[in-house]
Structure formats: C-alpha cells, structure tokens
C-alpha cells in the first residue's frame, strides 16, 4: 500500500501534468490572432499581390471590363487577414445592371467580392472572362457566376462560391460589409 508521502508526490505529478495541458490548450487558443480570422464587417480592402500590393482597393482601379483583382482584408488596427488561405478574396466588376437583383445589396457599383478558394478541391481561382461573366478554376475547369451569387455554371464543383458583401468607403475605397455568405472552401452543394 502506498504511503501518504508517495500518494502526495503522485498527486503533485498529476497536478503538474494537468497544469501543463491547460497551459498549452490556452496557449493554442490564444495563438489564433486577427490575422487568422476571415474578413469581417468594417475591414478595408487592399490589393493582394503585384506591384500595387498593399494599396487600397478603389472603384477607379476596378474598371468594368478589367482584370480580376486579388484582395486582402485589413482590420482597424492595420492587421492583414492573410493567416488563412480561406480568407483570400477576389474582386471583379460588371455593369451594375448585370448584377442579379438578389445580389445588389452585396455589390458596390457592379464590383463583386467572392472567396478565391474553389469549392471543388480548394484551388485558388484566377480566371475571369468579362465576355462570359464567369470565374474559372484551372485545376478542373469549374466555372462560377459572380453576378449570380457565385452560382456554379460548370462543374465538377457543386457548391457556389461564397460572396463577401461590400460597402463603399471614403474616397471610392471598398470596405467589407459582412462575413462570407457561406463557409469558404470545398464542400457539398
Ligand atoms: S479545384 Fe477547382 S475545379 Fe477542382
């Protein structure tokens, strides 16, 4: 039978181990900072890559008929939300009357923001045709309709691309008006 001193030592060892587990769990939870969060209401948008990376996204820089632009959300403290690839945003612009009525509240003057992550197997979407108004994924050639809420125009993807609601900021800049309309990334229809 264990003596009182040995029992006390055993309890102490268990206490230390449980304390270590609690410490690390707390540490891991605290590690997810604002840079790891998805875009949120009130964030501003900056250009995500190329020579103008970090500059504010403006309506002037997104002409109708122009190229797809990658963007990053930045919080009020200036933290870029680029810790998770699911936070990646793509912007395209169409004529305002080409935006489906159901989507007009999410668009600004024909500018539409969507998740950049293909809902088939998670590749980054980089193709945009102003003629067909379709975004395309070069991994397996899925196509999406940004002006129709990211609806799938051509598979194998089955789930629409989540939309990021936009608002107009000062000086023609673009802001985030709310979170993605669905969880970004691959998933069932
Ligand atoms: S990952 Fe985009 S079509 Fe397959």
Automatic annotation (TrEMBL):
<keyword id="KW-1015">Disulfide bond</keyword>
<dbReference type="Pfam" id="PF00355">
    <property type="entry name" value="Rieske"/>
</dbReference>
<keyword id="KW-0408">Iron</keyword>
<keyword id="KW-0001">2Fe-2S</keyword>
<dbReference type="InterPro" id="IPR017941">
    <property type="entry name" value="Rieske_2Fe-2S"/>
</dbReference>
<protein>
    <submittedName>
        <fullName>Rieske (2Fe-2S) protein</fullName>
    </submittedName>
</protein>
<keyword id="KW-0479">Metal-binding</keyword>
<dbReference type="GO" id="GO:0016020">
    <property type="term" value="C:membrane"/>
</dbReference>
<feature type="domain" description="Rieske">
    <location>
        <begin position="109"/>
        <end position="175"/>
    </location>
</feature>
<dbReference type="InterPro" id="IPR005805">
    <property type="entry name" value="Rieske_Fe-S_prot_C"/>
</dbReference>
<dbReference type="InterPro" id="IPR014349">
    <property type="entry name" value="Rieske_Fe-S_prot"/>
</dbReference>
<dbReference type="InterPro" id="IPR036922">
    <property type="entry name" value="Rieske_2Fe-2S_sf"/>
</dbReference>
<dbReference type="GO" id="GO:0046872">
    <property type="term" value="F:metal ion binding"/>
</dbReference>
<dbReference type="GO" id="GO:0051537">
    <property type="term" value="F:2 iron, 2 sulfur cluster binding"/>
</dbReference>
<keyword id="KW-0411">Iron-sulfur</keyword>
